[in-house]
Amino acid sequence: MKIGIIGLGNISQKAYLPVMMALDNEIEWHLFTRDQEKLAKLGKKYRISNLYSSIDELLSSGIEAVFIHTATHTHEALIRECIEKGIHVYVDKPISENVEEVKALMELAKEKDILLITGFNRRFAPMIQKVKEVPNKNMILIQKTKPESSGSVKYAIYDLFIHVVDTALFLLDEPITQTHFTVKEEAGNLVSCVLHLTTEHTECIATMNYISGANAESVEIQSPTGTHRVVNLTDYEIETAKQKQVISFGDWDETLEKRGFAPLIRLAIDGFQNKKNPVSMDSSLESHRICQLIVESYEQRVH
Question: What is the value of pTM for the model shown?
Answer without folding.
Answer: 0.95
